[in-house]
Amino acid sequence: MFIYLLITAVSVSVFYLWKTFKYWENEGIPFDKPNIPFGSLKSLMTRERSFGMAIYDVYNKYKYPFLGIYLMFRPAILIRDATLSKTILTKDFPSFHDRGIYVDEENDPFSAHLFAAEGQSWKSLRNKLTPSFTSGKLKAMYPTILETAEKLTNSLKEQLPKGGSKIIEIKDLMDSFAIDIIASVIFGIEIDSFKEPNNEFRMAGRTSNKPNFLENLRGAALFLFPQLERVFKLLNIKGETQEFMKKVVKETVEFREKNNVVRKDLMQMLIQLRNSGKINEEDDNWKFQTVSEDLKSMSMEKLSGQGFLFFAAGFETTSGTASYLLYELTQNPELRDRVVEEIEEVLAKYDRKLTYEGMQEMKLLDKCVMETSRKYPGLPILNRVCTQDYKVPESHYTIKKGTPIIISLMGLHRDPEHFPDPLKFDPERFENNLYNPSAYMPFGEGPRNCIAFRMGRVGAMTGVISVLSNFNIECKEKRELEIDNYSIAIVPKGGVNIKFTRK
Ligand code: HEM
Predict the structure, then answer these.
(1) Which CATH number belongs to the domain containing residue 498 in this structure?
(2) Radius of gyration over every alpha carbon of the chain, rounded to an integer in angstroms
(3) Which residues pair with 390 in a beta bridge?
(4) Which ligand 1 atom sits closest to the C-alpha of 320?
(5) Nearby residues of 173 by Cβ (< 8 Å), 6 or more positions away
(6) Taking burial as the number of CB atoms within 10 A of a residue's CB, which of 203, 352, 400, 405 is the most buried?
(7) Facing residues of 406 across strands?
(8) pLDDT tens-digit series, residues 401-454
(9) Could you tell which of 114, 324, 449, 450 is best to mutate to test the pocket of ligand 1, judged by most ligand atoms within 8 Å of the CB?
(10) Ligand 1: which atom is nearest the Cα of residue 266?
């Protein structure tokens, strides 16, 4: 009996795999020959590559404008063509408005955050949250970002011997910098991760970006097999970071409501949204009205989900941009000196104080941030799901509703066809228009692009300015940074090691 059952189970599995991996052949479009049972993601499963880098390898293998791939057993389409990518994200957005990752608004409101929310629910949330990220609101939060930058420079000074130099791993410090900014401007909680590296926020950051195979697999599964997350939930397997965020948000909201606290941060705006259904458009109105629980427009779980997302989406991307930029400047000393000169000129103009306005005048530094986001896109892939059958322009193929769509930002940004000599760190390419603008999308594109791109840019720039105005940086070794094999974001293998000397 057992033998019969075993034979039946094996036959059904073999038939399932055979049928699954025939999908793209039957559809009649070019496809990446699958490695059964991992499809196009063998290097992810063997821990050689992260998800984004495994997709980058597929991008580099072909020249087709789009092709079929297998995200393990899940047929998906990789868009390689820059114009088609942009069209899908912008003009034809109505056919691709969702990401198709795990979300269960009814039973798990925490999951219904902006990144995962779908359809009308996403649209309404996006409209409501947009006023939180205007440049006016960011300017109001800027003093807090500056205070955190001061902690960063103090920490670096403390680590350096008097009059001497030291090699410091800057990515870890920039993680602390980005986490402290987020804790303060989003949650309104003052922490000092430089002095207390084991505080709960900093620990949550470490949990979410440490090379833990199972946690990382769970992260990738949100994209690959959204249904699997339901199984984790049924089994009551909780994510540590999620549980921590729920606790922090609940305590913060209750404290503010009880004590009528007014702070210029994102939590304040989320409370406005929860209590009145909208965020005040005026940049100087931060107050909220306390209303009874039954009149609130958003559950505490859903509000915590937004907080968690801002933390997860904001810290690694911001700290990565600042760290990669500093590293590239050590590799290009002539450029580094010009950037330092620009910073000094602007600081001299503003009484040696860094201001929001002054930072906008640092044009070369701005180009360096653009070039860093090109060479090291914070998120190496963009993803959408096809929400209605879509005839691909200038092709006979119709993408079927429900098909996952992947765009390799790493692939586009490092493609010599779009960016000549792609490994060269060359901010001037943006000055001289020596690139293909359709292929440049570090913050995504269209209605679902990064809602906080200004905050990411300003955070990274401020970190870099603080370092360059206080320290000389160099790196004797000339080499390309390697990308590690875990995380959805791109993580530098072995960190970013730079020699620091006090000015
Ligand atoms: C340099 C820093 C950053 C980079 C490179 C970056 C990049 C991105 C990218 C590529 C996307 C996907 C866009 C798409 O699919 O078209 C995204 C989405 C998003 N980002 Fe950022 N980001 C950064 C900073 C931040 C920060 C600081 C926050 C929040 C505090 C944030 C919050 C979000 C959210 C909420 C979304 C989802 C938007 C939606 O689906 O409507 N990001 N980001």
Answers:
(1) 1.10.630.10
(2) 24
(3) 399
(4) 1
(5) 152, 155, 156, 194
(6) 405
(7) 78, 383
(8) 999 999 999 999 999 999 999 999 999 999 988 899 999 999 999 999 999 999
(9) 450
(10) 30
